[in-house]
Design goal:
Radius of gyration: 17 Å
Largest sheet: 5 strands, antiparallel
Distance between the termini: 26 Å
Helix content: 25-40%
Shape: globular
Strand content: 25-35%
Mean pLDDT: 96
Number of domains: 1
Low-confidence stretches: none
Number of strands: 15
Structural class: alpha+beta
CATH class: Alpha Beta
CATH architecture: Alpha-Beta Complex
Number of helices: 5
Strand order of the largest sheet: 8-7-9-14-15
CATH superfamily: Creatinase/methionine aminopeptidase superfamily
Length: 263
């Protein structure tokens, strides 16, 4: 690992992660048929503004600077969807992916939601993708190397009959959103030989499984950002920023905990 974070730095990252959680909560309460993805993005941007936090995604370099605080992806859109005047419809799946920097430290999280009633296979997709993230976090306290976690994540997804999207992976996070090393959601022998890393106190990771209902191949749309499944079947994406501490894995982008100290 390039950076191992101290206990004090983890607390600082938790403060950023809490703002990310608050932004997600504010937007999630508004998800319903008829609301636009731009309205959801504006809600998240306002939470960041009021907290004095910098949106990490706004202006992010790419084919053009990313124009929003949030990547909002619907149905077959896997990641990097651009908010617009598109309205949500009953039966959609919507992914909100966002992050901020607060007092020099970053937090990053993503969640996929059902809009109203969705088919049972969509509900199962959400359950398995969320379960894959939960599994990874639990295994952080049981495994010694990330490749061991990634292998079990892949087996869990494929055992449920879904596909792991391999074009995008998680990442270490700290002063910057994307830091080394990469954090794949699947086992790759070549990667493991050259880039695998130890799981030890001080490691902070953005873990983000992306799972496809159909095949895992993706392609980019004409906007240069939005990534979609080639077979146009839905996908889901869940992400938390997680710190490994002497007391075990700690989710930094979750709800406030009873008695939690942020100083």
């Amino acid at each position: 690992m390039r950076h191992l974070r101290s206990a004090r730095e983890v607390v600082a990252m938790r403060r950023a992660g809490l703002v990310v959680w608050q932004a997600h909560q504010a937007a999630a309460e508004l998800i319903r048929p008829g609301i636009t993805t731009a309205e959801l993005d504006a809600t998240i941007a306002e939470v960041f503004r009021l907290a004095g936090a910098e949106p990490l995604f706004l202006g992010y370099p790419g084919p053009s600077p990313f124009p929003a605080a949030t990547c909002i992806s619907l149905n077959e859109e896997v990641v990097h969807g651009i908010p617009s005047d598109r309205q949500l419809a009953e039966g959609d799946l919507i992914t909100l992916d966002t992050g901020c920097r607060l007092q020099g430290w970053c937090g990053d999280a993503a969640f996929t939601y059902a809009v109203g009633a969705v088919p049972l296979e969509y509900e199962r997709l959400l359950e398995v993708t969320r379960g894959t993230l939960d599994l990874a976090i639990r295994l952080l306290d049981e495994k010694s190397r990330w490749s061991q976690v990634a292998r079990e994540m892949q087996a869990f997804v494929e055992g449920a009959g879904f596909s792991v999207i391999r074009d995008f992976v998680g990442h270490a996070i700290g002063r910057n959103m994307h830091e080394s090393p990469q954090v794949p959601n699947f086992y790759d022998e070549t990667w493991a030989r050259g880039q695998d890393f130890d799981l030890r106190p001080g490691v902070v990771l953005a873990i983000e499984p992306m799972v496809a209902l159909g095949k895992p191949e993706v392609e980019v749309l004409e906007d240069g950002w939005t990534q979609v499944t080639k077979d146009r079947r839905p996908s889901a994406h869940f992400e938390h920023t997680v710190a490994l501490t002497a007391e075990g894995a700690r989710i930094l982008t979750c709800a406030p905990q009873v008695g939690e100290a942020l100083e």
